[in-house]
């Protein structure tokens, strides 16, 4: 099969022919229909993710068609089109039984701990636990984002912060997960302030319904959010994984506010200073989040259907496998609005 393989940190991905993955016991082999290119893939490309061993095929945000099923699989057959969370939980351990699949000790992460979906095929273990049917009529390029950015934002808003209608949500970072948080928070009835330093991204956020936008390169975002919301946000979503935005996300909250760390701390930012005075004085709640348990897909899909939520504005670039390196390099600086999705695996 054709794949884009990383052999050196920050080097161009090699377009190579590699062996098709074996079908895992209890798992399936998917023909990849679409695969997003995410900031987390950039962390892989730069060598900031300690789980990755070279040579490696990145890619973790995918949807696909089942081409083969392994022993023990009961829910799926060849021809089924499916979506999957990027954290593939075992479904059998105590954490999985309690519904906490994202902390499963046996979890497998294509694109990180095994070969990923920058390829024509990807192996997906624990298929009966993790896969969900691709809704009929949903564009695979949009569905790919439901493997990471959309699902991560949804779980941050609902599974961690428990956002309520009428609340103010401040989102730091108007990239793929930030824009997903904007669209989903609005669908939940919340009002959203978006913070970024790229005017084009803020313009996109305003077009998508943000109640306010703040250019942090031109204004103090904490003061601006407090002014826009009449005293501070109820919930803050940090979608970049940077010390400055993490601190500002906490400081912009009103008392008893909730902040969710969505951005991945990596490289030089594994450890960050936290304004504990704000946490203490404001009696704030600070949550970490990573992905979404697969059992929550029905509620997400129900929200999308019930509100007629259009996620298509997220996908602004449909690219070929050969474009993956250039799209990864975009994350070295301020990236353009929207996300890039690989839809052509032949060129």
UniProtKB/TrEMBL annotation:
Pfam families: ADH_N, ADH_zinc_N
A molecular function (GO) term: zinc ion binding
Annotated Enoyl reductase (ER) domain residues: 10-342
Entry cofactors: Zn(2+)
Record's keyword terms, sorted: Metal-binding, Oxidoreductase, Zinc
Family note: Belongs to the zinc-containing alcohol dehydrogenase family.
Descriptive protein name: Alcohol dehydrogenase
Biological source species: Sulfitobacter alexandrii
């Amino acid at each position: 099969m054709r794949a884009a393989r990383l052999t050196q940190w920050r080097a161009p991905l090699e377009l190579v022919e590699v062996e098709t993955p074996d079908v895992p016991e209890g798992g399936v082999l998917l023909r990849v229909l679409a695969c997003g290119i995410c900031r987390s893939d950039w962390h892989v490309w730069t060598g900031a993710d300690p789980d990755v061993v070279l040579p490696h095929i990145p890619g973790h945000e995918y949807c696909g068609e089942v081409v083969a099923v392994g022993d023990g699989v009961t829910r799926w057959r060849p021809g089924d089109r499916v979506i999957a969370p990027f954290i593939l939980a075992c479904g059998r351990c105590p954490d999985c039984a309690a519904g906490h699949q994202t902390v499963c000790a046996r979890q497998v992460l294509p694109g990180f701990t095994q070969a990923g979906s920058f390829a024509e095929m990807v192996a997906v273990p624990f298929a009966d636990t993790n896969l969900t049917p691709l809704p009929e009529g949903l564009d695979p390029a949009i569905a790919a984002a439901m493997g990471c950015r959309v699902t991560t934002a949804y779980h941050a808003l609902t599974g961690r912060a428990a956002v309520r209608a009428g609340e103010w949500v401040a989102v730091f970072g108007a990239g793929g997960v930030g824009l997903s948080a904007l669209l989903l928070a609005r669908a939940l009835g919340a009002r959203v302030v978006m913070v970024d330093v790229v005017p084009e991204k803020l313009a996109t956020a305003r077009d998508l319904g943000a109640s306010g936008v703040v250019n942090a390169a031109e204004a103090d975002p904490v003061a601006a959010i407090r002014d826009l919301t009449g005293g501070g946000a109820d919930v803050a979503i940090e979608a970049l994984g940077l010390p400055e935005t993490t601190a500002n996300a906490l400081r912009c909250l009103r008392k008893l506010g909730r902040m969710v760390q969505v951005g991945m701390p990596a490289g030089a930012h594994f450890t960050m200073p936290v304004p504990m005075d704000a946490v203490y004085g404001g009696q704030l709640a600070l949550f970490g989040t990573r992905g979404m348990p697969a059992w929550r897909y029905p509620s997400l899909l129900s929200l999308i259907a019930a509100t007629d939520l259009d996620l298509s504005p997220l996908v602004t670039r449909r690219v070929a496998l050969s474009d993956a390196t250039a799209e990864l390099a975009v994350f070295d600086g301020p990236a353009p609005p929207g996300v890039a999705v690989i839809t052509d695996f032949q060129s």
